[in-house]
Every structure is written in C-alpha cells, then in structure tokens.
Design a protein that fits this description.
It is a single chain. With 392 residues, the protein is α/β, with parallel strands linked by helices. It has two domains: 301 residues, Ureohydrolase domain (Arginase, Chain A); 72 residues, no CATH class. It is built from 13 helices and 14 strands. Helix 3 crosses helix 11 and helix 10 runs parallel beside helix 11. The protein is globular and about 70 Å long.
Amino acid sequence: MSDIQHFFKPLDMSAISDGQTYAENQFGNLVNIYSQEDAFPDLQGIDIAILGVCEDRRADDNQGCASAPDEVRKFFYRLFPGTFSPRIVDLGNIHPGHDVDDTYFALKATVDYLIRNNIVPFILGGSQDLTYAQFLGYEKLEQTINIVAIDSTLDLGDPEGDVNNHAYLGRIILHQPNYLFNYSNIGYQTYLVDPSALAMMNRLYFDTYRLGQVRDNIEESEPILRHADMLTFDMSAIKHSDAPANPNASPNGFYSEEACQMMRYAGMNDKLSSVGLYEINPGYDQQGKTAHLAAQMIWCFADGFYGRKHDFPSRSNPDYLRFNVMLQDDKYEINFYKSKKSDRWWMEIPYPPNKGLKFERHTLLPCSYKDYELATNNDIPDRWWQTYQKLS
C-alpha cells in the first residue's frame, strides 16, 4: 500500500465518462485511474500524477470550485495524446478533511511523497489557497525553491491573518524555515493590484510581469517559467470570454491559446516539480468551456513534459556555447550559455562565497536572446540584476 493511498477516494468513472466507452488511444484508456477501492495505481515508472483536491471552504468568493476536478476529467479523458506515450496516473480526489488544515496536510504529504519519487503532481483544485499546501510539500526537501504564479492579482493578504484564496502569499513569504528563493507573477492586471503590494514585491526583489507586457511577446514568458520549481495557475487570469467559470474572471486576461502555450513552456522546464490549477467553478461555466480548456492545458503540459531536452547547462559541457559580456566599463561581467540542443539561453550570476551552498542552484538563470542583446548594448537585464541583488 502506498504511503498516500489513505488520503484519496476513488473516482466514479461512470459519472465522469457519462456512460461512454473510451477509444483505445484516448486518455481514458491510457491513464491508470484510481476507480476501485482496492486498486490504487502502481506508481513505479510514472512521470505525472493527476490529483483532485475538492476543497473550497476558504474560497471567500468562489464557493463551488471544489467540484471542478471531475468536470475537468470529463474532457481530459476524451483527448488523444500527440506523439508522446504518457506514463500518467490519476490518484483520484482528496476530499475535505475535518477542517481545512487536514486537507492542507494531505496535499502537503502527497506533494512531498510524489516529488521524492520523481513524479510531478498535477493538482486540480479547489481554491487557490491550496497553493500554500502545495508549497508546504517542499518543506522537508532541503532546497530553496522558485514559485511562478500565473494570476491577475498578487494574493498577498495579511501574513498574520487566515489563509484564503486571495491571501496566501504573505504566509509563504514569512514561512519559517524560509525555503522560498524567488517568486514571479505572470499576468497581473494593474487596476486589480494595490500599488503598495507591487512596491513590496520590488523590495523583496521578486518579479512581476504585467499582463500587457507578457501578451506583447508570449515567448518571453518561457524563461520565467523555466525558472520555476512550482507553478500555481489561477484560472481567473484567463479572460472571461475564454474561461467564464469563475465569478472573479475579468473581461481582460490571457487568451486560451496563450494559457496553453505557457503550460507547454512549463512542461518543458526540466526542474519544474509540481503544478496547481485552481479556481475553476463549474457553476459559472458555459457548456463546459472552462473545464474543456483546463483539460487542454493539462494536455499541453504533458506535451511539453515529454519534449523535455534535459539541457540545464554545465559550465564545461561542450553542448553549450558560452558568451562573455563586460558591462559598464568592466564593472559587471555576465557569462551567457546557449544550448545547442534547444537554442535556450541562461546567464550566470556571480556567487558570493560567504553564502555557502544554500543558493548555488540559482546562479544559472534562464533568460532569452533578448537579455543577451541588452547586455551587448551595455544594459543590465532586469532579471539578472534582481537575482544579483538578492544574492549580494
């Protein structure tokens, strides 16, 4: 018996499939699904584990999102894989515990267990306060991590107050022991964010990318996502017309194609080890449009995952081109690395010897050719400077 089996309830596949039989090559036949009480999936050789968390007691304004996981599954299991051969399990659903902290504990323990076994948990919420429990899953892994959130707001909240779906980030930032190295927000909408929260992000040398800035060149989101150990995606970051299943969805936001593209970039990230997809409320959906989009986002993540290049650079590996750039009258030196496999770029941050080994894994920073161009024009790339300041 798996260490985590007791957290999960098997799925009612007759309700999810609506009585239909899946074709041989649909995900409904290809995924090992926990649907019988005594048949928990074997996790040996598995790459990705889908798990639902039916929790919305701290969704202050989105009650009903607890029913999302099975709605997404209805569409996902009708899809066909592309050129990849999936090694995916569906562990079923974590149902609400006696109180919310019990649910958090179950999710934390599951994330920890799966990551230790080199399996990527793909969490279907539920409300976004579950991001906090997802983060807690890294607590005993003895490394500092980077979080990327695709979200129209920052969800800081009062770190001394209760965690809810709009107030969890402050608790993560102040958590002790502190194992958060960097937080990046992709897609915040300025009119939804308190300027003082943005100022705080800047003081902490965290990264925030406005919606318009990202949409102008969606490819520039790839290095940001390549830096993540953990991804949390609030579906209300997608515009209402494309994903109506959320009472907080805005007329503005990412288009569905952009959401899928970012999920594919996330899947391609060699070091990304958990994903959470939150805040889908079937009660607000229109003909299942949002659940269908979420299913396609899972597909895009898997497509990226099975296209991973495993090309994180080594400073002496011949599979990389190295470019040395001196800036501002030789005051700063940046080494850039370009992968011959994928044409992706990284830049090196000078590492202070007094820091020991704690932050060493963050000294090769994903970047783009645009960052290299900036450096050759004697401009310090913003993301290099933010990390340099944090390490200094």
